[in-house]
Design a protein that fits this description.
This protein has a 5-stranded parallel beta sheet with strand order 2-1-5-6-7, sandwiched between helices. It has a single domain, classed as Phosphopantoate/pantothenate synthetase (Rossmann fold), CATH 3.40.50. α3 packs across α9. The longest helix has 25 residues. It is of the alpha/beta class and 248 residues long. α6 links the parallel β5 and β6. The protein has 10 helices and 7 strands. The structure holds ligand PTJ. Ligand PTJ binds next to α2 and α4.
Length: 248
Amino acid sequence: MIPKDHPRYESLIRREKIAEAAWDKIVAMEGVGSHGRGEAFDYLIGEKTTPSALIAEKTAAALLLNAKKPVISVNGNTAALAADQISDLQKKTGALVEVNLFHRTEERIQKITKLLEENGVIVLKGKTERLLPLSHDRALCIQEGIYSADVILVPLEDGDRCEKLVEMGKTVITIDLNPLSRTARTADLTIVDELTRAIANITEAAENMTQEQQKKLIENLDNKKLLKSAIKSIMENLSDAMDRKAQA
Ligand code: PTJ
């Protein structure tokens, strides 16, 4: 039982959700490791949304709202941490939601779909085919979903599929706390923020932006600048920590 007044309550609750979902086979065992890496980067970034991440989140909302066929690709970790938030984001943006897994089993697909549906998500179903040029099972997707999306949100992604989706001409948005990852460097737009904070901010932005604001954000999108900013935030955070230590 995690007390509500614990200074790192939110982070510990997320860890507990991941652990429970791993026991339920919603999160892959490898996903527990991925979450730990995410936690470490969140620590480095100060466990908060930086100003440049907020710009990235607003830009993500603008891209999804202006897409012809926006799709959100959901894996085990994303479902475990944010099933209810994915439902809100789907409602605000009209995006299709497709389950796509790296460590794919039919059992996990069923369990993740059930969890999403229990939280109000409309999950795309249909014939799954090996449509992406990848040797692993992330190649498996639905023709009317991921395969034909023009804008795709792929939270907590692996670099391979991100690269292929970009090569296929899609606008790829990722959420990844590690600004150095291959995915972060390959995507068209990288949100360096914790998944649940990021989805909440994208959804809020999708509710509140004018057409003019959306247009401006899309025109000004510069992912290299956003990544540099994220790395700078980590460096500043570390430098502040060193100063505090020196004064102690
Ligand atoms: O459910 P599956 O089978 O599709 O598997 C999903 C995982 C996450 C296991 C798979 O996609 C994977 O191995 O991902 P990676 O290569 O570990 O990349 C995940 C990235 O997300 C890493 O750079 C982590 O730092 C980052 N990350 C982890 N948790 C969070 C996060 N970023 C934002 N918010 C988080 N909560």
